[in-house]
Amino acid sequence: MTRVVFVTQQIDPAHPNLGAAVSMVRALAAQVNEVAVLALRAVPDALPANCRARTFGGRSQAGRGVRFAAALAAELRPRPDAVIAHMSPIYAVLAAPLCRPLGVPVILWFTHWRDSRTLRLAERVSKAVATVDPSSFPFASPKVHAIGHGIDVAGLPCRPDPGGAPLRTLALGRTSPAKGLEAIAAGVRLARERGTDVELEIRGPSETDEERRYRDELVASGANVVDPVPRSELPGVFARTDVLLNGAATGSLDKAVFEACASCVPALASNPGFAGLLPPELLFERGNVEQLADRLEAFAQRADRAALGHELRRRVEQEHSAEHWAKAILALAG
Fold this sequence. Notes:
Shape: elongated
Number of strands: 12
Helix content: 25-40%
Strand content: 15-25%
Distance between the termini: 8 Å
Structural class: alpha/beta
Radius of gyration: 20 Å
Strand order of the largest sheet: 3-2-1-4-5-6-7
């Protein structure tokens, strides 16, 4: 392939949630001659030399739609090999009427539990839908392909070998009820009451009123909730972490788990979709406070934590790296 169009919300390496799109674009750029990026907002000089960015941000939804259509039309001549819609189904829906007459395939990348009419329409108009795992897409379709996550393994160095106490745990991501953070905090408290020297840091943004209220409730309960950091500072956060805790609901294969494992930081997770990455003793039932406390006690006593971290990094590098992701996306387009 020679040229693809990549559509996303933001190109910003520092963004706590959306910064991962930058490593995906970089991985695509290493496989093709040119990547044209369409985004609401783009930080200058964030992309390789063979990429260029057009922005279509605006105050109104209608205005953004018009600007997006104009930006995409400009990139359809000469004809690209594919248009890749990143995480926002509406981009696939808006792209299809312009792409279909020219025979340009639309590929949707989507990994989330939430179903919607827009997502259903995007699935119909896309040539293929890529996701992490069958469980990370909300409905069955022959168009859905599990290709792993696109993790910037090279940008996440393996943390120094752990040692000593306390056991430092981290919950990373939005402070949303969907993350099960209240049960995680309760599990850590119970493990501490049983005699395990363990600390918990909850780190992430609160972007909606519901998330801000939830964050306030966590703080009021005594949880240590701190602000998110730019993605460039994640290696430093993981270097201070012994184990990541993730209590997200089924269907949400949080990127943070893969990023932690890429950093040689094991994870305890509640989503059974992580069974392909994590050994059984690192999985727990969502909301089961006693089981999580049991898992923490057992993990604190493991003598092979460093070896486990290195094995998990190997698994992410083999099946979930940005390079693996880019090759799989382009194969779907071809």
